[in-house]
Amino acid sequence: MSSAIVVKGLIKTFFIRAPVSGFIGTMKSLFSPKISEQKAIDNISFEIKRGEKVAFIGPNGAGKSTTIKILTGILYPSEGHVEVLGLVPWQKRDVLGFKIGTVFGQRSQLWYHLPASDSFSLLSKIYEIPKATYKKRLHELIAIFELEKLLAKPVRQLSLGERMRCELCASLLHKPEILFLDEPTIGLDLNAKLQIRTLLNRLSLEQKTTLFLTSHDTADIEQVSERVLILDKGELIKDSTIYDLKKTYMRKKIVTLITEEEKISFTIPGVTPLASPPFHFICEIDLAIQPIEKVIQKALEVANVKDITIEDPSMEEIIRDVYAAKV
Amino acid sequence: MLQKFNKYAAIFSLTFNQGLKNYKLLFGLSLFLITCLIIFAHLWKVAAIRTHTDFNPETLLWYIAFNEWILISIPEVQKEMQEDFQSGRLAYLLPRPISYLGAVFAEGFAQLVLQLVVLGSVTFLFAFLWTETFPLTFLQFALMLLLGLCAGILGLLLQMLIGLSSFWLHDVTPVNWVWEKLLFIFGGLILPLSAYPLWLQKVAALTPFSPILGGRSGLIFGFDQSQIFSLFGLLALWFIIGSIALKLVYRRGLKILNISGG
Amino acid sequence: MQVGLMVANNVIFYIMWWLFFNEFTTVGGWQVKDMIALLAIGGGSYGLMAILFGGTRDLGKLIINGNLDPFMTQPKNLLLHIAGSKSVAKGWGNLLTTLFLLFFGNLTDPKTLSLVCLSLCTGCLVFTSIRIIAHSMAFWLGPIESLSERYTDSLFLFALYPTNIYSGILQLVMFTLIPAGVITYLPVELIRDFSWEKVFILLASGSAFSAAAIIVFYRGLKRYESGNQFGARV
After folding, report:
1. Residue C231: its pLDDT value, please?
2. For labelling alongside A313, which of A210, C88, C193, C201 has CA 20 to 30 A away?
3. Interface of A with B in 34-53 (CB under 8 A)
4. Are A224 and A272 in a shared domain?
5. What is the average per-residue pLDDT within B205-228?
6. Are A158 and A225 within one domain?
7. Residues of C in contact with B50 (CB under 8 A)
8. In whole angstroms, what is the distance from residue B70 CA to residue B151 CA?
9. Cβ <8 Å between C234 and A112
10. Is residue A268 domain-shared with residue A235, that is, in the same domain?
11. What is the pLDDT of residues B94-122, one digit of tens each?
12. Which residues of B touch C144 (CB under 8 A)?
């Protein structure tokens, strides 16, 4: 089968007891509790092929972690069909466990006061990896993640970036076919982030691992994933490749003019002023309405331009636009 | 099957080694235990004199020793379980091809065994040196050790049950507080169980606390073959009840997680 | 509702306690009333600590996991900040039980009440200080939180016994290493037989333990800051 993940018509509703305060409220809730329905996931469908690198993004509360929990078999849906590597996750959690790996950025699966190597060894037993296979695999991963110097140190003595590399290594010991990553670069400095992203790309290329990652960092999305699923309030509002997303929004350009005049203004169709600090003019041009040469021509007519910068909109702005369009 | 056992054995040995490395804790616990022994022994000696009950002070110390040994050796797994729930680490642990409860038990069992061995050695050596008596034959002592191990295992199981209340409560300490009080009263820590009024002894005998602590340690006052069997039996019975409860509560807890999120 | 449960739980416990030590109370001329005062002050002090300084319970864990940093970056007094960061509900249960005991034991005249309040404050300080010292040991000894908590809990237990039943070295221990005597015995003696001397000793002890706790904690903190125990943590 070429599909790693298949999701059709997924709906998940939670029934939450309304919080009560006070003695009378508590008594009341014992006999007739107020239960409110919360639709965490509202009818989403998507399919992910093996080897794809997919980013799963959305604001907090959009339903991302609920989706991951369903895909990893921790929760089951209220309605809908889900298949991960041909298995129904919550029914075959044990079997699926051997084939998937998880990395949660803010939590650790390593034993805190022991060297990482001890945790690796334990995981090899949990995943029933034959000794010879484990040794070879560990050797490979140590080389890839550059862990030789870190293995003997207790995990609590590692920096966050070093710990993340160990976490990644730990999640890959059993050669999972899909790797779920939840905020893998959170809290890392730029260098460490870059390193992790490079490693993930290499992983996907060399081992054909399917990557499913959630992140708030748009650079994660841009530099690692090929496809992005955008979630908002439980609905899938966008499912597109990065390439297509950029192409759609490449219609826009951000132009920054530095002028001799303190303030300029000009209005032509297709140009949206964004900001005008002193001696600057920043605007967004919709190329579908107005070609860029015309805008620059007009600017030169209206002002003494000392410098021009033309940029593509950032991933963040693209995503913001997607949300705005949805509203 | 062997591979399954290997997983839990691996957790056991890892925890055991980690515990050994943390020898400062073991040393501290030993010191703490001896201090408690001395204080309680003195307390009860005074109580015995003033209430004109005839308790041999040496035997009394051995009673306390057998009690405290188990009480302090039971690992506080409920705290770690609460941490797993609250931090969301559970989401990490559940997809793994290993039973969560099994893993917690393996970890707790390693801590228990290590502490039983270390604290037991310290306690009994101290009791022997302090009282200059050894009130049991070697066979009886061996049986007491075995009983202690079983009692510790039951205690561990019940602590896990308390830990599971994390599914419902934000903080398990209130539940643990109640548990400790019950252990104190019905486990014969205020006074030897045999000094309680008869009706209270009967009530205590119906709880798991008596076989874990006071009922078991009470053998020191009069070693009775038949009591040994009944104690083993009670421990086994409570273990079975506890295991069933554990499985049911866990399943219910997961269901709640599914219904209302977490 | 949790608080209600706590009160019920405490009351039952104390009743059992009292049942056993009925005969005990003839020690040193003590009466039932004094025993009740002892329980009230012991439980109340512990409860007050839980309410005001509940955050100290997690101090050991914070030290071990290197999580003091978020507290350290804030412009508040570090120790107070951590101590006050949590308020444990069961503390209210203990305080309510204390109130109940005071009424039950007819200890509600203004003079006694004011002495009780004073004792609750000093007792709370001593409990908190011991807990801080116990947890601060983590700076030097590593992951020993279970020992630290056991030590603090045992102090609570021993505070529920009148310390005049001990003799010799044990008596000394009860006023120093396990200051149960300072928390409950001394205040009850104060109520039984007032003297300014006793008041002074009570206040001095409370201050001494508090000072010790502060010294120990900040000494330990230096080790934490120097980073030689805990390596770099981002």
Report:
1. 31
2. A210
3. 38, 40
4. no
5. 85
6. yes
7. 23-24, 26-27
8. 7
9. no
10. no
11. 889 999 999 999 999 999 999 999 999 99
12. 22, 24-25, 28
Query: Is A179 part of any domain?
Result: yes
Q: Which residue has the tokens 């209206």?
A: A302
- pLDDT tier, C232 (very low <50, low <70, confident <90, very high otherwise): very low
Find chain A residues with C-beta within 8 A of C230's C-beta. 156-157
Tell me: do A102 and A21 sit in the same domain: yes
In this structure, what token pair is assigned to residue B90? 């559970």
Q: Are C84 and C76 in contact (CB under 8 A)?
A: no
User: Is residue A194, in this structure, part of any structural domain at all?
Assistant: yes
Which residue carries 């001397």 as its tokens? C197
Give pLDDT tens digits for B66-99. Answer: 999 999 999 999 999 998 888 888 888 888 999 9
Identify all chain A residues contacting C2, using CB atoms and an 8 Å cutoff. Answer: none
Q: What is the mean pLDDT of residues C133-146?
A: 89
Within a domain: residue A316?
Answer: no
Which pLDDT belongs to residue C26? Answer: 55
User: What secondary structure does DSSP assign to A263-314, as a single string?
Assistant: ------TTEEEEE--TTEEEEEEETTTS-HHHHHHHHHHHS-EEEEEEEPPP
Residue A299 within a domain: yes
Are A263 and A240 within one domain?
no
Q: To the nearest whole angstrom, how far is the Cα of C141 from the nearest Cα of chain B?
A: 6
Pairing, β A280-286 against β A252-259: antiparallel
Scanning every residue of chain B, which has its alpha carbon at the shortest distance from the alpha carbon of A117? B14
Instruction: Give the residue numbers spanning the domain of A70.
Output: 3-246
Domain boundary pick from A228, A246, A264:
A246
Chain A residues touching residue C227 (CB < 8 angstroms): none
Q: Most C CBs within 10 Å: which of A156, A159, A185, A193, as the mutation test of the C interface?
A: A156
pLDDT at B149 over 70: yes
Q: Could you list the residue range(s) of the whole structural domain that residue C90 is in?
A: 2-226
Q: Cα angle at A54 between A50 and A58, to 5 degrees?
A: 150
Would you state the structure tokens that stand for residue A12, as one six-digit string? 């998940």
What is the total count of domains within chain C? Answer: 1
What DSSP designation does C29 have? Answer: G
Provide the CATH number for the domain around residue A284: 3.30.70
Band (pLDDT 50/70/90 cuts) for residue B136 is confident
* Domain count within chain B: 1
Domain total in chain A: 2
Q: Does C18 touch chain B (CB under 8 A)?
A: no
pLDDT at B52 over 70: no
pLDDT tens, N- to C-terminus, chain A (327 residues)? 578 899 999 999 888 876 666 556 656 666 677 788 888 899 999 999 999 999 988 887 788 888 988 999 989 899 999 999 999 998 988 899 999 999 987 778 888 888 999 999 999 999 999 999 999 999 999 988 889 999 988 888 888 888 888 999 999 999 999 999 988 888 788 888 888 888 889 888 888 899 999 887 878 888 889 999 988 888 888 898 888 887 776 678 888 889 888 888 878 888 888 888 888 888 888 887 888 888 888 888 888 888 988 887 777 777 777 877 765
Say if the Cβ atoms of A114 and B260 lie within 8 Å.
no
Q: What is the ipTM of this complex?
A: 0.83
User: Tokens 């209270």 belong to which residue?
Assistant: B200
Is C77 part of any domain?
Answer: yes
For residues A55-78, one letter each, b for 16 or more C-beta atoms within 10 angstroms of the residue's C-beta and e for the rest, the string is bbbbeeebbbbbbbbbbbbbbebb
Measured in degrees and rounded to the nearest 5, phi and psi for residue A37 equal: -90, 135
Chains in contact with A, where contact means 3 or more Cβ–Cβ distances below 8 Å, are B, C
Per-residue confidence (pLDDT) for residue C157, from 0 to 100: 85
A178-182 and A271-275 strand pairing: unpaired
Which helix (H) or strand (E) element contains residue A237?
A: strand A235-241
Q: Which domain holds residue B206?
A: 2-260
C161/B43 touch (CB, cutoff 8 Å), yes or no: yes
**C187 CA to chain B: closest CA distance, Å?**
21
Taking every pair of C-alpha atoms in chain B, what is the biggest distance, in angstroms?
61
